[in-house]
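User: Can you predict the 3D structure for this chain?
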Amino acid sequence: MIKVYATKQGEKYRLLVQGHATKGQEEGSLVCAAVSALTGALVSFATSHPACRYVRASLSRGNAFLSCRSGLNEAYDMTVLALRQLALEHPMHVCFPCGGTLVNDTEALPVL
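Assistant: Here is the predicted structure, written as structure tokens:
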């Protein structure tokens, strides 16, 4: 199971993704690849974008972490929406709150 934690408070962004989809299933492998591509792209963007400040990030097998201030805006929102959509379509592989609205300035999205 892939667990996603995402928070956005003003210009502070955090994303933590941990785990793997079910091994031995083609669908699980595809979901893992999608989550890895999304989180990896966001981390790469944040670490290379000059507007992102105080960036802390790490990527390893089954783990992605990003924390920064400023500069992510739509890139962060798009990534969170895509991860939420994956959770809606593949609930056996991704644990992420479903329903509600886009992450706003004060909304924290913990794992269910």
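Residues 98-112 have pLDDT under 50 and may be disordered. The domain at 2-99 is CATH 3.30.70.1490 (Alpha-Beta Plaits).
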